[in-house]
Amino acid sequence: MRVVGPPLRQVLGETLSELAGRDTRIVVLDGDVGSSTGGAAVETAHPGRYLQAGIAEQNMVAMAAGLATVGFVPFVTTFACFAVARALDSIRVLVAQPGLPVTIVGGYAGLLTGMTGKTHQIFNDVAVMRSLARMTVVAPADQIEARQAVERLAALDGPAYIQITREPSPAIFDEDYHFELGRAVVLRDGDDLVLVSTGVQTTRVVEAAELLAARGVSAAVLHCPTVKPIDEDALVEAALGVGLVVTVEEQSVLGGLGGAVAEVLADKAPVPVKRLGIQDCYGESGPNEALLEKYRLSAARVADDVERVFSTIRTRKGPAAARSRG
Fold first, then answer.
1. I need a labelling partner for 37 at 20 to 30 A (CA). Which of 28, 104, 138, 257 fits?
2. What CA–CA distance (Å, rounded) separates 226 from 231?
3. Model pTM?
4. Within a 10 A sphere around the Cβ of 232, how many other Cβ atoms?
5. Is 27 among the domain residues?
């Protein structure tokens, strides 16, 4: 059993507090959810650089943009649904278009939002944010990667969006891991197909690959913590080694990681791509494990779906095609 680390929201607060202690330019703006996103840790450590904007997300982004123009390094913290759905125009016009170094933190990202239900869930935030020119989009998998990602974004000369989840999640990296913006990471080698994932869903995909191995299906796992700019070279290299790529994400299958991967491979390494994730629907309230099962994002359900896709491809085109080496 993998060690379960602290929630990424806790890691966010601790990391921002440490960074603010070293760099007086860093400020954190919060949309009245600091105790939920982890941002309140900065209020305790550095109250003078924690700005409570209240439930006024558009204004909060405008404040961050103004601070960035006079040399500050702002982090905007709120729930992903509020950051993207309520404040998109402010992000687009005031942050992305001028290319300001503002990092938007999408807290409570994905499906597991503490039984808040569909009003507090958003599954197309990655799709929306990666569509904005100049925007870097990051989804870390565990606490080690989250800490390093926040540190890198604090030094980024441009706008960024980072997903931060609510629940504790397994650790897959150790302290020797080095996160690099725009670089994908091979977590497992395989000969039959490649599983491409991002964010905390990668921890479940690694487990799914282990289940598949026990069934005789050899699946590589490629983790893409940076959805934009995505690591095109790593995707092409992985795709050319097999005959099937399956993307898995705790996001809508429309426009997110799956869309990004399909766009790259359509141009540079055409192979069958199957996108697994949230289908064209909204979420609901429920216990974590029940939601993962229903939306087929648990390790067991991912393994089942991948095995079915692989079997279909192999039956349709023959084993040689399913194991093509490009």
1. 257
2. 8
3. 0.94
4. 18
5. yes
